[in-house]
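Is this the right way to post structure tokens for a design question? Let me know if I should format differently. Anyway, here goes:
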């Protein structure tokens, strides 16, 4: 007799305060911009502790042909040379979607101390489907952050419906 299949529950939505909601919505708007430009729909914003915008970017894979042109990595490439590690340690990276393994690694290397994201990887996989060119490494950003010697606070998923809207119809069947 075989055991019944187990289904893991999707992560619960995390409520955000006004500031986090505002900047996450800015990242979601960048995801829509990415999609309108022919890219996969992801956006990211990096904000200093005092509210200064340090960087913003959208996914540019389609435009550039660069497989590493993810929104988070691109925003870090803008912020990292311009701001010290102490500034980035106190900063928050807002991402329209849960950072992938590559982006989580870039967040670690940049010393960014806090991440807030919209749609989680599990829900995102439903949009991506089973096409090999759309699949991701099924490792949570939290697994990468938990292995970090410095703390990286991770909040999400949040604003799931708003963050999901960018993905409706955006992926190849």
């Amino acid at each position: 007799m075989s055991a019944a299949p187990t289904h893991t529950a999707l992560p619960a939505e995390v409520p955000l305060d006004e500031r986090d909601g505002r900047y996450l919505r800015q990242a979601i708007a960048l995801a829509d911009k990415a999609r309108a430009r022919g890219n996969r729909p992801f956006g990211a914003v990096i904000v200093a502790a005092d509210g200064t915008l340090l960087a913003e970017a959208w996914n540019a894979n389609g435009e550039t042909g660069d497989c590493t042109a993810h929104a988070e990595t691109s925003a870090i490439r803008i912020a990292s040379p311009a701001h010290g590690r102490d500034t980035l340690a106190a900063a928050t990276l807002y991402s329209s979607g849960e950072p992938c393994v590559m982006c989580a690694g870039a967040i670690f290397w940049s010393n960014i101390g806090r991440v807030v994201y919209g749609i989680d990887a599990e829900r995102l996989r439903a949009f991506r489907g089973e096409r090999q060119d759309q699949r991701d490494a099924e490792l949570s950003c939290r697994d990468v952050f938990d292995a970090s010697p410095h703390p990286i606070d991770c909040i999400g998923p949040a604003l799931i419906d708003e963050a999901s809207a960018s993905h409706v119809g955006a992926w190849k069947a």
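Format looks fine. Someone answered above. Worth noting: The CA atoms of residues 30 and 123 lie 19 Å apart. The chain is about 40% helix and 15% strand.
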